[in-house]
Amino acid sequence: MIRDITIGQYYPAKSILHRLDPRVKLTATVLYLISLFLFKNLSGYLVATVFLIVIIRLSKVPFKFIMRGMRPVIMLLMITLLFNLFLIKEGEVIFSAWIFKITEGGLRNAVLMAVRLIYLITGSSLMTFTTTPNELTDGLESLLKPLGRIHVPVHEIAMMMSIALRFIPILLEETDKIMKAQIARGADLESGNILQKAKSMIPILVPLFVSAFRRANDLAMAMEARCYRGGEGRTKMNPLRYTGRDKAAYAIVILYVAGVVAVGRYVPLHIWIF
Amino acid sequence: MSIRIEHLNYIYSQGTAYEKQALKDICLEIPHGEFVGIIGHTGSGKSTLIQHLNGLIKATDGTICYNGENIYGERFNMKELRNQVGLVFQYPEHQLFEVDVLSDVCFGPKNQGFSREECEKRAREALKLVGLKEKYYQSSPFELSGGQKRRAAIAGVLAMQPKVLILDEPTAGLDPKGRDEILEQIAYLHKETGITVILVSHSMEDIARYADRIIVMNQGQVMYNSTPKEVFAHYKELEEVGLAAPQVTYIMHELAEKGLAVDIGATTVREAADSIMEVLGR
Ligand SMILES: Nc1ncnc2c1ncn2[C@@H]1O[C@H](COP(=O)(O)OP(=O)(O)O)[C@@H](O)[C@H]1O
Ligand SMILES: [Mg+2]
Q1: Chain B hits for A211, Cβ within 8 Å
Q2: Nearest ligand to the C-alpha of residue B40?
Q3: Number of domains composing chain A
Q4: Which of A258, B87, B168, B187 fits a 20 to 30 Å CA distance from B45?
Q5: What is the pLDDT of residues B96-132, one digit of tens each?
Q6: A259 contacts A38 by C-beta, under 8 angstroms
Q7: Overall number of domains in chain B
Q8: Comparing C-alpha atoms, which of A233, A195, A222, A243 is closest to residue A21?
């Protein structure tokens, strides 16, 4: 179960998306996420869906693996869905029982919001699936460089982000190990009420925190030992360089955003209540 | 009272790019009371194998029987299995969490449902067995030295009084003195209580000294499964898979080549010394 968390992980494969410049992927992801909120019509959703499917196919990350990453956020999705479903009162009532009433507007909003969230998560995980933490840091640092002029510690931020990303799988593995060790000592992690469950987490959380701090300490030492002292004057072994492929990718993304917004706003498409 | 493993296969992350077959068609039988050594190169599947024995990992394929009962059976009591098969993980000190050593060791027996007094009694016995001094019982486990932490953590499993004790590289990262002490205590425990001990290690010396039988793992498969003498006779093959026989094996073979009629099957320094003395007629 704990290993189902795939957010922020890298998935090794040989695809055109894996080879793209990280800056392209970062920019494209941000543009894609924003574009999801710039249209209302069903036609826009259709375009966004087609685009996402094409990208998933191009990435060569198995669909099953992407879906696995959805599991931990299902709760969040459910909550949003229910809130939208019951709290938005717009248009005709299509279902009513006791104090619950579902309206057309509520259903529409709930479904569309859920779809948006799923696309949002899929889109951003696709970026981390296809980009190693190192590339991601380089890309972010290079994109944010202008902020350095107003004294934003760009390099440090990028470094912290990449370390955090790198540590997600390590800590998950650690959690898995500690859980197994405590289960082997008879720990019961499943039964009991919420309070008992929270209490049964202590034997896992304490060692996990201890180990996280130990690892942080070790890493800091190792960085010191190699004379790491921040970004100033630091050069790169493989500096980022745009190629024709990257420029084409930029063009495609911009075309897509323009297209999806135009279609989603000006091409009406109605099916049932949507 | 035995553990029987039949055609066990295990695949990590099946169906992803990280897919990895860690165990291939393992068949083993471990009778009660035996001291078994499992040895193998890093990544050969030792840790994966032993986690199957108390049901922490479910086999992709194959069966495991504990005392003749299939542990994947529907009505099998997994909790009872974990009470009887104690597993000490590699670097067990990473699982310490209580405010003091004694409470931490009590965690296991407490989960087994014993009374407070009984838990404490068992914890004290276990701590004594691993040779941790009484003055440390009330200190925080995080203040202990590496070797002491290791002892406290091993005591945490011993306090559950398992019938089968599995230790995954219990001496990794310890100094030679700490290593010998811990192994001696495990051997003592085995002799006194007659429990089954499964010791995972990659030191041939350690295993040769204590184990009745050695299981050599290589790339997820059982390569050899017999007495130390027979296994070390294959010292050339062991080298090919990145392992080595104990140093005495090499010395005895060289002496034999030079024409001294020593016992090339000697596996411990003691045996080797005796054999050489005998040949020299003293
Ligand atoms: N949690 C895991 N996920 C995926 N692969 C793993 C995991 N644990 C171990 N492996 C792989 O399984 C193989 C056997 O590992 P392991 O049983 O830990 O070997 P050993 O204990 O002999 O060093 C190795 O190739 C290792 O990379
Ligand atoms: Mg191991």
Answers
A1: 94
A2: 1
A3: 1
A4: B187
A5: 999 999 999 999 999 999 999 999 999 999 999 998 9
A6: no
A7: 1
A8: A243
